[in-house]
Amino acid sequence: MLINLLPAALQYLLTSRLFAQPSSKVSDPHSLKFELRHGLGISNSTSRVVFSDISSSSQFAPEPYVVDTTTLTIPRARSQSRFFSARMRGAQHTVDWDDTDVVGPNVRDRETLQMLAKMTNNAYSQPGSKDWYDLGPEWNSSYPFGWEPDADGFRGHIFATEDNSTVIVSIKGTSAGWIVGGGGPTTRKDKLNDNLLFSCCCARVGPTWTTVCPCYKGKSRCDQNCLEDSLAEESLFYTIGINLYNNVTYMYPHSNIWLVGHSLGGSLASLVGLTFGAPVVAFESPGEKLAASRLHLPLPVAKDHIVHVYHTADPIAMGTCNGVSSSCAIAGYAMETRCHLGKVIRYDTVSKLHWSVDVRTHGIAVIVNKLLSDDWEEGDVPEGNKTKGGVPPLTEEEDCSDCFNWEFGEFKDKSLGAQSCGN
Ligand SMILES: *[C@@H]1O[C@H](CO)[C@@H](O)[C@H](O)[C@H]1NC(C)=O
Ligand SMILES: *[C@@H]1O[C@H](CO)[C@@H](O)[C@H](O)[C@H]1NC(C)=O
Ligand SMILES: *[C@@H]1O[C@H](CO)[C@@H](O)[C@H](O)[C@H]1NC(C)=O
Ligand SMILES: *[C@@H]1O[C@H](CO)[C@@H](O)[C@H](O)[C@H]1NC(C)=O
Ligand SMILES: *[C@@H]1O[C@H](CO)[C@@H](O)[C@H](O)[C@H]1NC(C)=O
Description:
By secondary structure, the protein is of the alpha/beta class. The chain has a single domain, classed as 3-Layer(aba) Sandwich (Rossmann fold). Helices cover 26% and strands 19% of the residues. It has helices at residues 8-18, 80-86, 110-119, 177-180, 187-198, 224-230, 236-251, 264-276, 289-294, 315-318, 327-331, 349-353, 364-371, and strands at residues 31-42, 49-53, 65-77, 97-105, 155-161, 166-171, 221-223, 256-262, 280-283, 306-311, 343-347, 394-395, 407-409. The strands form 2 sheets. Strands 1, 2, 3, 4, 5, 6, 8, 9, 10, 11 and 12 form an 11-stranded mixed sheet that branches. It has a two-stranded parallel sheet with strand order 7-13. A hairpin with a 4-residue loop joins strand 5 (155-161) and strand 6. Helix 3 (110-119) runs antiparallel to helix 13 and helix 7 (236-251) packs across helix 8 (264-276). 45% of the residues are buried. One 2-acetamido-2-deoxy-beta-D-glucopyranose binds next to loops.
C-alpha cells in the first residue's frame, strides 16, 4: 500500500481524516462501541501469528468504533473435535449443529458496514518498534516479520468493547505475498496447498506458468483425485486462521467473537467463521466456496452469518481477474474462483455507477470512501425509495459455479469418461 510509504506525520493526518466523523449512534442501545486493542501479523520465518498491544492513548487508536447490532442465529458444531475429524480423508461421520443466538453486526445498516470496512484498513497500523508477541510456546520477540511495505503481508487488528463482551478480529487484505512469496520453512508445500484453494487447477494460468501440482492433464482438463491428493490437510492459509482464532479465544475466553476482513483476509474470515460459528463480514473477497470444499469443511445448511460485501467492478471479488495478462497473474498468483458462501450484498457499480472493471476498485479505501460513503439506491425500486439503510438487498449467489471452463475427472486412463464438476 502506497500509504505505508508516506512519512508518519502525513500518514497520521490522512488516517485521522479517514476516521474523523464521530458517530451519532453512541447512545443507541443496539450499538456497541469498540476500541483498538492489538495488532496482529504473521511472522515471515515461522508462519506463526504474532500480536502487539496498542494502548488507548496511541495515535493509532483514534476513535471509538461504533457499530449497530442485531441478533443472529448461528449453527455451531456441537463438537469441535468431530468437526475437525470429519475433515479427514475417509471420515464417515457427520457433524451435529446447534443453533445459537449471538449478537452480530447489523449488516443492513450502511454506517455499520462502513465502520467495519474501516476496521479492515491498515492505514493506521504501523509496526514501528512495538513488542510483538506470540502466544505459542516458542515465544521470541525478535522474529523477523513481514511488515515491509512491499511485502504487504498478512496483518490485522483486534478490537474489543470496554467490557470485553464482544471482540472483533479484523484481517487485512493482502496481496498473495505472504502465501506465494516468503521463505517459511514449509513454503513449497504451503504454496502448493494455498494455490489449490483459489485457483482451478494447480495455478495453471497459462503455458508459461509452473503448476503447483501435477494434475493438469492437457487442454482444460484437471484430475480431481490428483487435486484432492495434492491438498494435504495442512493448509497454511486455513491453519493461520484457526491458530489466530484460538489465540484470540485464549486472550478473550468469555467474549463473543466477530470476524471481518478485506480481500483474502475476508476469505479467511469466512472459512474461520464457518468453522467456529462466528459472525463474519467480508469485503471484496475472492470466492471461497471452492476453498471450503477443497478443505473438506463440514458446512451447516444455514450460513447466513457469513456476509460478503462486494461490487461488480472489482475483478478479484467477481472472479474475473484471471488469465495470463491479468493483474492477478502479473502479481504472481492465480485468483480464479468467484462463488461465495453465505449471503451477499452486491453493489452493481458497473451498471448503476458506470464504474469500469479495474483492480484498483478492489482497495479498501475505495470501499470506505466511495462505495459505502452514501446510501445506495436500488435501481428496481421507485425513484426516491431507498432500501433500509441504503444497502442493497441481502441475497445468495444462486447457480454459481467455479471453474466452469475446466473439466474435472479421472484422466489417467483416457478411455474413461470424465465427470464434469463445477464446484
Ligand atoms: C497461538 O497460535 C500459535 C500458532 O501461531 C499456536 O502454536 C499456539 O498454540 C496458539 N496459542 C494458544 C494459546 O492458542
Ligand atoms: C530469537 O530468534 C533470533 C533469530 O530468529 C535468534 O537469533 C535469537 O537467539 C532468538 N532468541 C531467543 C531468546 O530464543
Ligand atoms: C479485557 O481483556 C483484557 C485482555 O486483553 C484485560 O486486560 C482486561 O482487564 C479485560 N477487561 C475487562 C473489563 O474484563
Ligand atoms: C519477509 O518476506 C518478504 C517477502 O515475502 C521479504 O521481502 C522480506 O525481506 C522478509 N522479511 C524478513 C525480515 O525476513
Ligand atoms: C417505498 O417502498 C415502500 C415499501 O416497499 C412503499 O410502501 C412506498 O409506497 C414506497 N414509496 C414510494 C415513494 O414509492
